[in-house]
Amino acid sequence: MGKAGFIALIILWLFLASVAVFFGIPLVWLILSALDPNASPEFKIPSTISMENFIRLGEPVSGVPPYMWIVNSTIISTLVATIVTIASILAAYVLTRYSFKGQSAMLTAFIVFRLIPPLILALPIMILYRMWGMMNTIHGLVLAMSALILPFTMMIAESFLKSIPATYEEAAMVDGCTRLGAFLKITLPLAAPGIATIWLLAFVTSWSQFVLPLMIIRTPSLMPASVGLQFFFGEYGRVEYGKLSAFSILYSLPVLIVFLIVQKYLKRGIAGLVTR
Amino acid sequence: MASVRLDHVTKIFPPKTIAVNDVSLEIKNGEFFILLGPSGCGKTTTLRMIAGLEKPTKGRVYIDDEDVTDLPPRKRDVAMVFQTYALYPHMKVYDNIAFPLKLRNMPKDEIDRKVKEVAKLLRIEELLDRYPKQLSGGQQQRVALARALVRHPRVWLMDEPLSNLDALLRVRMRAEIKRLQKELKITTIYVTHDQVEAMSMADRIAVMNKGRVLQVGSPREVYHKPKTLFVAGFIGTPPMNFIKTVFTIDKNEYVLSGQNFKIKLPRQLGELIETKKGLDKEVILGIRPEHIEVVEQPIEKNNIVEAEVYVVEPLGTETIINIKINDTIVKVKTVKEILLEPGAKIKVKIDPNKIYIFDPTTEEAII
User: Fold this and answer.
1) How many whole angstroms separate alpha carbon B119 and alpha carbon B96?
2) For residue B15, is the peptide bond before it cis, meaning its omega torsion is within 30 degrees of 0?
C-alpha cells in the first residue's frame, strides 16, 4: 500500500469512527442513564448500577403506571396490524386476480393517498370523531391509524400476491376446491412471508405514531407509549431522567426485536415493491 | 370416462378480443383428442372453458350430455395438467397427489393406497417425500400427471404438458402419456402447438387458428387431406411448399403455369379444377417437400422446374434442400446423398399426382 493509500484509509477510518460515535453515544448515554439511580442530564458513568429505574416504572406518573402505556401500545399496534393485514391481503387478492374498470386508477389513488402527510388528515378526523363520539377511544384511534397505514401495506400485499401465479389456485379449483378454499389452502400459505412482513411493518408503524394518538386520546390511562412519554417531563421543568431513559429503552425494544426478525422478509417485500 | 361436446362456443375477452370463435366439437368417450394450433389461436382458452376456469361468452359445454357450462371446475370431475405443472410448492409430492382425494373426504388409508398405486404407475414412488422444487422437470411432470390421474377423472385435460421438457425427454414422455391414456382409456383433451406431438399421439386432431376450428380429423386425414392453406402449411415437417400458378389449357392439355415452368395435369384432375374454379384463374399449388425430386438428367420435359440452390440442410438420414424457383423458396426433402453448393442450377420434378390446389382468396382447398 502506498503512502497516499494509507492516508486515505486513515481518513476513511476517522470518518467511520465519527459516524459511529455520533449515533452510538446517545444510545450509550441512554443505557447508562437508565441504569443509574441518580441520573441527571449529563453524560457520566454511574457510580452504582441498578435496575431501580425500571422497577419504579410501576409507580404511577400522572395517575397511570408507565407500564400501562406499553401495554396500551401493544394492544393498539396488534389490533392495527391485524386489521391492516387482513384488509391488505383481501384487497390485493381482488386487485391481482380480477380485472375491473378503474383498476389502475385505484392503484394510483392508493399511491397518492400514501403521500398525504397524516397531519393534514388529523383535523378532519378530529371533527368527524367529535360528531361520532369516537374521540378519546381506543377503537377510534385504531381505525384512524389503520386507514393511514393501509395504502402502504396494500401495495406490498399486491406485489406479493402478484408474484404467486394464479395457476396454483386454478389447479386447486380443478382438484376440487372452491375459490375461497383455493385461496385459504394454497395462496395464503404461499404468501406467509408476505403476510408476516405486512403485519410487522404495520405494527412498527403504528407503534411509533405520535400525532394521531396525541390528538385523539386525552385520558392518560388510554394513551400509547409514544404519547405517554411526555408525562416524564413534569411541571416546573422537573424531569425524571432515570425513569425517562428506562421507559425509552422499553419503548424501543419491541421495534428493535421486530426489525431483527423481519429484516430478511422486509428486503424481499420492499424489493418486490420496487420492481413492480 | 366421458364424452365432451362444445356447442357453438365463443369466448370474448373484454373489450373485444375474440379468443374462441363459434367452436363446435365432439370428443368421443375414451378418445385422445388434440387441439393443435399456433400460439394465440384459442386452443388453451377452449381447454380452460372445458375445465371451467373460463366461462364461455356464448355457447354451451356438455360432459356426458350434462350441461356443465355454469358449473364450477370442482363439480365437473375433470383433471388438468398445466403447462407449468402447478405443483403446490408448500406440499410434498405425496400431499400434492393426495390433495384432490383429501378434498373429497376420502378415508386416510384409502388415500394412502391410491397415492401409492398411482405413484407406482408413474414410477415416482421414491419421490413421495420430496418437495416439488427438489425435482427435475421430468419428475415434476410425472407428479403432475399422477395428481391428475389419482382420482380417475371423467376427462383428462392437458395444456402443453411437454413444452417445458428438453427434446429427448419430450419424445419419451410422449410415448408414455399415450401408453397411459390407452391403458386407462380416459377421455383426453390435449393442447399443443407442436404438430409432431399431435401427429404422433392423437386419435383425432382439431387444427385451430385465430379462434376457429379449421379442420377436425385423424392425423392421416389432416395430413393427406388438408382443407385449407393454413392446415396444409401447419402440418408436416418441413411444411408444405406453396407456389403461385395460373390454371389454364395449353395445347389441349390442362396445365399449371408458373413464370418459367409448366406442370401438366392429368385430364380428370384438370376437369375437376375447371368445374370448381374455372379456367385461366390464379391458384396456389401446394406440394410437400418429399414429393419434389431432384433430377440430374431429365428424360421428359414435362413437370420439370428449373431452380437455384439456396441453402442445404443435411439432417443425417435425410437432406433438406432449399431451392429458389423464381422468387419463391421451396424446400425439397431427399434421402439421396447429393452434394450441392448454394447458387448451383438444378432441375426438380414435381409429381402432378401429389399436388394440392388452393384458392388464393378463400385459402380453401380446391382439390
Assistant:
1) 12
2) yes
How wide is the angle at C-alpha B236 spanned by C-alphas B354 and B202, nearest 5°? 115
d(CA A195, CA A92): 11
Using a CB-CB cut-off of 8 Å, the residues of chain A touching B82 are 167, 170-171
Distances (CA, A) of B3 to A43, B6, B28, B155, B185: 86, 10, 5, 8, 12
Q: Which three cell numbers stand for residue B159?
A: 395444456
Whole-number Å distance between alpha carbons of B8 and B20 = 10
User: Does B88 sit within 8 Å of A186, measured CB to CB?
Assistant: yes
Range of lowest pLDDT (A37-46, A92-101, B232-241, B303-312): A37-46
Domain ranges of chain A: 3-50, 63-274
How far A112 CA sits from the closest chain B CA (Å)? 28
The b-or-e profile of B38-72 (16+ CB within 10 A means b, else e) is: eeebbbbbbbbbbbbbbebeebebbbeeeebeeeb
* Rounded CA separation A260/A250 (Å): 16
Q: Whole-prediction pTM value?
A: 0.82
- A168 with B88: Cβ contact below 8 A: yes
Mutate to test the interface with B, among A103, A163, A175 (most CBs of B within 10 A): A175
Q: How many CA atoms lie within 13 A of B347 on its CB side?
A: 13
Calculate the CA B328 to chain-centre distance.
26
**What is the ipTM score, two decimals?**
0.85
State chain A's mean pLDDT as an integer: 87
Chain-centroid distance, C-alpha B354:
22
Please give the CATH topology (third level) of the domain spanning A63-274. MetI-like fold (1.10.3720)
Instruction: Say how far apart CA B357 and CA B367 lie, in whole Å.
Output: 6
B contacts of A179 (beta carbons < 8 Å): 72
Which band of pLDDT confidence, cut at 50, 70 and 90, is reported for residue B166? confident
pLDDT digits (tens, 9 = 90+) for B289-326: 999 998 887 777 778 888 999 999 988 888 999 999 88
Cross-chain Cβ contact A165/B78 below 8 Å:
no
